[in-house]
Write a sequence for this structure.
């Protein structure tokens, strides 16, 4: 704990951790001051993301970039899962589906593109292990096809209009996706783990936290990020009405960006240190994890915590964006080499998605 407190004292950015208790108290005292809660939540998430970055790097130094990236993606997606469960409980299924699709696109396009851009600005050309990228891209492509199926058959004339068939199909697909995700973990971490070994980046003389401190910090900070992100979502939904944003835009763009703040900090830092193995593992691993685990888990949980079951039928624009993001990330990572301009192009693709969704919301969304 002394090492942790010393890093907090010596890092000005971590001094902003004071906003964490402030936002929690403010949410209890002035729950209707949505603008204040929004600002405080953003100020609290930034240092939490930085602290999570330090802890994850310490774990990755002991376990390797592949496992470190998987651990960070898991903890980062736990935040998005808690946010989605909160919306699920309230019956805001458009917000849930938008956050699922948006998180996939944000991680596969924006996070990956920003990592390639930031790393490329420091290093002329960067290389990384293609095997991990191919595995995550393959899993993501399979999940995208699965997510496309309910939307593709939903409008068939011979289906009952009560949605029972779509719900059955969604439950079956959810079970298949979770099984595929489990098999992917067995493949990458047990039977063929040698294929996913990270490149040797030379001696790393940076002092890391003890593994116990790092893991404990990861768990505690992830819970705090989840709590603060939940406050953020509740406040930003009210603010969205003022700015004319639809629930689809809030979930797809705003919630996805804020929910992935912790992962951004780790992935960007790794890219700047020429550790693209870890950056790609976090970006694509997180996207595939959302599609293969978070989305189906939410469908199954909706039968327990939701006012009614949720299906996997997304609006056509969301399915199209997810498919484009999947194909783009698979194409970009096929070579195992990158430069800054590739990352810039991916960020522009994400900007096109965001602008389109803001100007032309889905039907019934304003």
């Amino acid at each position: 704990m002394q090492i942790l407190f010393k890093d907090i004292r010596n890092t000005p950015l971590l001094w902003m951790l004071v906003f964490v208790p402030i936002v929690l108290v403010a949410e209890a005292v002035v729950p209707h001051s949505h603008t204040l809660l929004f600002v405080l939540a953003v100020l609290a998430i930034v240092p939490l993301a930085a602290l999570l970055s330090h802890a994850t790097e310490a774990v990755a130094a002991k376990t390797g970039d592949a496992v470190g990236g998987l651990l960070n993606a898991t903890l980062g997606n736990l935040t998005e899962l808690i946010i989605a469960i909160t919306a699920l409980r309230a019956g805001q299924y458009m917000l849930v589906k938008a956050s699922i699709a948006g998180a996939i696109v944000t991680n596969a396009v924006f996070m990956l593109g920003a990592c390639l851009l930031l790393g490329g600005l420091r290093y002329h050309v960067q290389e990384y292990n293609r095997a991990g990228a191919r595995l995550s891209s393959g899993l993501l492509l399979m999940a995208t096809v699965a997510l496309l199926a309910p939307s593709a058959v939903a409008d068939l004339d011979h289906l009952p209009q009560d949605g029972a068939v779509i719900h059955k199909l969604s439950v079956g697909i959810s079970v298949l996706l979770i099984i595929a995700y489990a098999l992917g973990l067995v493949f990458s971490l047990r039977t063929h783990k040698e294929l996913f070994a990270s490149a040797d980046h030379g001696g790393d003389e940076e002092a890391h936290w003890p593994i116990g401190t790092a893991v404990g910090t990861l768990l505690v900070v992830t819970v705090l990020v989840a709590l603060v992100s939940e406050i953020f979502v509740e406040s930003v939904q009210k603010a969205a009405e003022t700015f004319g944003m639809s629930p689809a835009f809030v979930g797809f763009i705003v919630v996805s960006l804020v929910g992935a703040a912790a992962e951004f900090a780790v992935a960007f830092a790794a890219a700047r240190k020429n550790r693209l193995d870890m950056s790609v593992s976090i970006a694509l691993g997180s996207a595939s994890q959302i599609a293969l685990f978070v989305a189906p888990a939410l469908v199954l949980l909706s039968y327990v915590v939701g006012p009614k079951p949720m299906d996997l039928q997304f609006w056509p624009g969301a399915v199209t964006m997810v498919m484009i993001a999947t194909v783009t990330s698979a194409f970009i990572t096929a070579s195992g080499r990158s430069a800054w301009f590739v990352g810039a192009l991916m960020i522009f693709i994400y900007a096109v998605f965001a602008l389109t969704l803001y100007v032309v919301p889905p039907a019934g969304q304003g």
Q: What stands out?
A: The beta strands are 126-127, 337-338. The longest helix spans residues 211-243.
